[in-house]
Design the sequence.
């Protein structure tokens, strides 16, 4: 969107230069303004600074910042470009919405199938949430290349151990719903 905004501004350079205080615009000034505009992120950022600068003042500042204006025009993508993130987001929303039905069903029904479904979805939901935390806060550029790998390995081990413990509770104990009912009846 910012690139499109910059393209629209570059096409309107003669009108922009009149607005900024200079009546005539040469081709060298056109190329200078086009280079300078590339450094701005959006039209509001440019419009905010228009009343303060004339073309002469911009030329003075351009000698100091011309290298950084060109570098800042590059776009760096911080997220991955592979994978089906939309599909994963939809599945995460479905899993979250399924808890509305599964939690009461797990407590009210004494059914191993409902307990297993609730256990699997709980582990998936927790795993995705902790994975997002690791992706956000343990980036290799910030903490180094080793710590994120260790954290992801420990996350997978924790998820597997949690699922194994919940399955043992379902098949060898009262189940997830039965355990919740027993916790609620402690004070009675």
Sequence:
């Amino acid at each position: 969107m910012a690139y499109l905004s910059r393209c629209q501004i570059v096409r309107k350079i003669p009108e922009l230069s009149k607005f900024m205080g200079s009546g005539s615009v040469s081709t060298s000034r056109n190329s200078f303004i086009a280079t300078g505009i590339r450094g701005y992120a959006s039209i509001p950022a440019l419009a905010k600074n228009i009343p303060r600068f004339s073309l002469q003042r911009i030329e003075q500042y351009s000698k100091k910042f011309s290298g950084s204006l060109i570098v800042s025009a590059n776009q760096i993508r911080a997220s991955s470009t592979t994978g089906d993130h939309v599909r994963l987001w939809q599945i995460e929303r479905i899993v979250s919405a399924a808890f509305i039905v599964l939690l009461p069903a797990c407590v009210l029904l004494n059914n191993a199938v409902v307990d297993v479904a609730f256990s699997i979805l709980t582990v998936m939901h927790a795993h995705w949430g902790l994975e997002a935390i690791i992706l956000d806060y343990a980036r290799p550029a910030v903490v180094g290349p080793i710590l994120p790998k260790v954290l992801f390995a420990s996350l997978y081990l924790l998820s597997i151990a949690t699922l194994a413990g919940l399955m043992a509770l379902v098949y060898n104990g009262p189940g997830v719903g039965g355990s919740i009912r027993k916790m609620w009846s402690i004070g009675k």
